[in-house]
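Researcher: Hi, I'm a grad student and pretty new to this. My advisor asked me to get structures for two proteins we've been looking at. I'm not sure of the right format, so I'll just paste the first sequence and hope you can take it from there.
Model: That works fine. Here's the first sequence with its structure tokens right after it:
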Amino acid sequence: MTRLAGLLDMARADLEESPKNALGEERDSRWRGRRIVRVGSAWHLGVLLLTEDAVFATADVLKVVQPDRRGQISEAAQQRAELIRRCLLGGFRVGEIVHVGWEAIDLDEGGGPLKMHDGVPFVQLSSTGRSLPAESYLAEQVAILRQ
């Protein structure tokens, strides 16, 4: 996937001055309990997270907010609120965007949303969705992030 590596390097160069989002990872200790801690930062390009030296498949995206007391809320909303609480315990500030559950993608093997078709790299938008050529997908996502 050397062609893909070149496309990702071009995206990195174009995004050099653009803001990044935090990468968080869940940790558990006897002293501090379960929390989500900062392990890096990345540019959010749709279904991809791009760092200076790696690419990841996105998973959960959280905006850290102050916890509030609500009445009955869905189980999904309760789980999301718990993840945000763990972000606060891990030291994230209110207003930060945190990505958790992301998975590293090996460029040599592909995987996640990155696919090869006839030697051309593609990005698959969802597990059942369509794929777009990586070159045009990355160009569009970079343009969106730079706005």
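Researcher: Oh nice, that was easy. Here's the second one.
Model: And its structure:
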Amino acid sequence: RPARPAGPLQIEEVKAEKAVIKWDTPKDTGGSEIEGYIIEKQDLETGRWVPAGEVGPHDRKFTVEPLTPKKKYNFRVKAKNKEGESEALTSDKPVLAKNPYDEPAKPGKPEITDYDNTMVDLKWSAPSSDGGAPITNYVVEMKDKLSNDWKEVLKVDGNKTEGKVTGLQENASVQFRVKAINKAGPSEPSSETPLHIVKHRNLKPYIDRTNLNNVVLKVGRSHKFEVDIRGEPPPKVTWSFGEDVKLSNNEFIKIDNRDYHSDIYLNKLTRKQSGKYIITAVNASGKDSVSVDVTVL
């Protein structure tokens, strides 16, 4: 039988799913020509040696595959001739089946830089590490408030750290996060944005006229107007009596303003409260105003 192949057993390249090994011919062929080499691999978790392949007598190199990523392996090579197999030349130490690069670190938390009722513009910072391989893409994922599932909504080139997500549903509450991708795979996701309501960023105020009908009331009665208002940012709302008298809360009037809504409660009306009540909504995009007549008999 031949002597074992001359060493050391060199591991020229290791990746997640394969390794390239190299050896030299035995110093003693045992008096008979070498017919080939037998290569085996050992997963350290199982401890078992299993066949990885065979090559001819003139080959000194072999690609061992497939390997299971992130497992440790030993390798060995035997020479064979017609008398049988040699002792094995074994690798000096186990190798970890992994690429010479890793997934990137996670990108910075995305920031919403602009939005309207169908889209958002996002920007984020690149990861602190690219994992040893260039970032090829960023993937933006979105989650609806009512769902636990993140879904991909945008993919941009790795040299860009911003993007526009379009086709959003108005009034939906959504969050965004970003992953960086290199040839090892995707990073962990970034931190997510705070909950964002899909809406206009700049929208001229509009006062809903539905509940603003003229009324005729008897002395001593009360009445409430409930008014919805649109606009972005949320408009500032004021009430006035006629053109000149700005109204505020007192024993006869109660005004309750909140975002996108205003109530005015007229309590124990007297005849001198007959007149024109005007609601005005103002924001940076414009102004809207509506009057309603209250007649007290």
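Researcher: Is there anything I should tell my advisor about the second?
Model: You could mention this: The chain has a mean pLDDT of 97.
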